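Purpose: get a first structural picture of the assembly so the mutagenesis plan has something to point at.
Setup: two entries, given in the order below. No constraints added.
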Amino acid sequence: MKLATYNVNGVNGRLEVLLRWLDQAKPDVVCLQELKAPQEKFPIKAIEAAGYGAIWQGQKSWNGVAILAMGQEPRLTRKGLPGEPEDEHSRYIEAIVDGMVGCLYLPNGNPYPGPKFDYKLRWFRRLHDYAAELLELEEPVVLVGDYNVMPTELDVYKPERWTNDALFRVEVREAYKKLVGQGWTDALRHLHPGERIYTFWDYFRNAFARDAGLRIDHFLLSSGAARRLTKAEVDKHVRGWDHSSDHAPVWIELQDELVKKTRKTK
DNA sequence: ATGACACCTACGAGGTGA
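Result (structure tokens, whole complex):
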């Protein structure tokens, strides 16, 4: 199963690019972030015409997350994280599609310090508590999306410039580390230790051409999912397309459980 | 310090987010 994540930065403004990438990459499951569209403006007809079923949680102007599945309807299990009922940001959606898939858009948190940064840390705490519950489940779980965190210095083109940015503040890196420490596997880093890998390049300062990027889109896998992991890659070329998002799509390949069992019994 | 892009409102261009 090929599972992808893509922060589209406006699903309607990006529709042409998204459809082109879907047609080329043919992922089985896709998590989208930053739809920037209200619930009724999600382009479900075009998504369905491309062969995907979808569930989504929209929001006017900002945020918004979706899960797409080729040839099937994702079975919705949750919208929003528990722990702060007054939080109305559309940042989490979860479904069962060959295991459990949680699609998240963690708050950016800038500027630091301030209420937005505090909200980011609160959101992280809620994710931490809920993620621990997910690990108790029998089935494989994948928590995927835009975490708005560079986990280590290797994940930033120039770490010293980012020390007081909400994406790289020590509190935020600690929160990510603590989350992973519950027993999750960071799929890209696991398969590519020591390698410079970016998933985001700013629109300005010619960042993409200079490869001045950040690794902020992550796949966290439960042990059951990590056992099936065979590949993890960034579709970097998509970032170079005209009218591209500032993120590139990222994807992993999970070996089919059935294939694995068949091999074992041989 | 600057910049790019997409969203909004509402018709022209400026504010916000990140």
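Residues 9-10, 12-14, 34, 36-37, 60-62, 108-111, 116, 148, 166-167, 202-206, 243, 245-246 of chain A lie near DNA strand B (CB under 10 Å from a C1').
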